[in-house]
C-alpha cells in the first residue's frame, strides 16, 4: 500500500468514526472536507427522487456555490447515465477531472456522487468505488431519521396511505450471489392498496404481493396489516399456508369481512430452484425463460384473505431453470386502459421486459423505464395501484462479475468471492465445519 492509498484508507476510517453522531445535514460537508485532503476535491452528493426521475443536490449545511445545479434529470444527462447504468462517467468532454459515480446501498440505487479526480484512470480507481460505497452506507443510515431527506426527494404531496406503504416496503432492489429482486410501485404518491415484500431465511427467499380492496386510506390499512401479519407469522416459522391463514384471520378480526386482500405468497429454494407458492384470489405469477418464452404458472386460487369464507388454499411447486425471471404483479399494471380503451395487458408487460433485457439494461433500470412507459401509456394518470416485482434466479452457482454489473449496476470490484464470503461462512457454521 503506497502513501496515497494509506491516506485514503485513513479517510474512510475517519468518516466511519465521524458518522456516529452525524446528522444527514452534516454528511455532505463532512465527506467533502475529508475527501479534499486526499485528492478528491469538491465531492457533491445527489440523491434520486421517489420516482427516480430527478437527482437532487444534498447540500446540507455547505455553500456549494451558484454554479452547481440544484437538480438534474435522470434522463438525458451524464449524471443520469451513471445512475441508470451503474457506471462511472466523466462529467463532460470539456471538463477535466470531474466524474459521476453511482451511489449504491447493496444493489439499491440511491443517487450519484460527483468527484474531482486528477487524470483519466478513474474507472480503475478502486478507492473511488470505496468512497462511493461508504457514502451510500452513511446516507442510508441517516435518511430514515431525516425529514429533510423526505422533503428533498418528494416532488409533490403524498397521501397518508402512501406514507404508510413506503415506510413498510423493503428496498426496491436487492441481490445476493445467486438471486436478484427488484420492484416498482405506482402511483408513488397516491398508492394505497398494493404492497410487496421479500426476505431471506438461509437458503430460502420469501416473496409476497398484496392487493387490497379499494383505493382509499382503508385500503392502505388493509395492505399494511396483511403484510405485517404475513411477516409476523413467517418470522415465527409458519409455512406458506399457515401464514396465509394467519393473515386471513387478522383481517377478519379487524374488518369483519368488509375488507379483504388478494395475494400470492411464495418461497424459492436457492440451492435447487424449487418454487413453492399459493394463490389467494390474485393473478398468478409468470416466468420469463431464456428471455423469449413466457411460462404461465397456475395454482387453484383460494378466496381473497379476509373474506371469512375459510376455504383452504393449495400449494403448487414449480421448478425454475437457471436464468429464469419470476414476475409477480398486481392488476393495476395489466388492466389499466388508455384513452382508446386498450389494456396494457400481460403481453405488453412481458414484451417490454424481454425487449429491454435484450438491450442490456440493469434490471432496476428496466423496471424504472417500464413504469415510465406505463404512466405515459395512461397519460400519467393511473386509476389503480400498479406493482411489479421481478426475481431472477441465477442457479446454484454464483453470478460472474460481468453478470452482476450488467444486472444491477454493481461496480466491477463486486466479485462472487466478495459477495458470497458471508454466505460461505454461514454455510460452514450450519454444516458444523
TrEMBL record:
EC number of this enzyme: 3.1.3.16
Chain segments annotated as coiled-coil in the UniProt record: none
Keyword Transit peptide recorded: no
Superkingdom classification of source: Bacteria
Database matches in Gene3D superfamilies: PPM-type phosphatase domain
Family matches, as InterPro entries: Bact_Sigma-Reg (IPR052016), PPM-type-like_dom_sf (IPR036457), PPM-type_phosphatase-like_dom (IPR001932)
Keyword field: Hydrolase
GO molecular function terms listed in the Swiss-Prot or TrEMBL record: protein serine/threonine phosphatase activity
Pfam families in the cross-refs: SpoIIE (PF07228)
All residue ranges annotated as the PPM-type phosphatase domain in the record: 176-393
SMART domains in the record: PP2C_SIG
Membrane-spanning ranges: none
Protein name from the UniProt record: PP2C family protein-serine/threonine phosphatase
